[in-house]
């Protein structure tokens, strides 16, 4: 059971995301019906630690094995999405893999089908994308050498 609960107008969510960089690019993804992009990952399940959740999410969404590295950010993220006020706790880890099969120049869908669209984007061009949470556009340019706590408040993203 995912760690998420809803009220009439609010949602609490516990999420984990992977920072996978290669050759000055980072992998981002989005739901095909949304305009905003994010780092790949997903919800943490009850009784699951954040690293195990991240490994599971990459396996489910991209059918690949990853190694979880440095925990870069712990984020208290507040944003509006489709009429709900979200309060999200997120852990952002560096990830790596020896699998190079997904290093593609064009956007692609994962094996789960066409719901999610993935894309490798040069880090210096992230400002051209609606990447959320918004601190990632600058934060990904120079990853911290230690874990940093961030409180992020983004406006309504539809």
Automatic annotation (TrEMBL):
Record bears the keyword Hydrolase: yes
GO molecular function annotation: hydrolase activity
Cofactor or coenzyme needed: Mg(2+)
SUPFAM superfamilies: Nudix
Ranges of residues in domain Nudix hydrolase: 4-144
InterPro entries per record: NUDIX_hydrolase-like_dom_sf (IPR015797), NUDIX_hydrolase_CS (IPR020084), NUDIX_hydrolase_dom (IPR000086)
Listed PROSITE patterns: NUDIX, NUDIX_BOX
UniProt keyword Transport present: no
This protein's UniProt keywords: Hydrolase
Descriptive protein name: NUDIX hydrolase
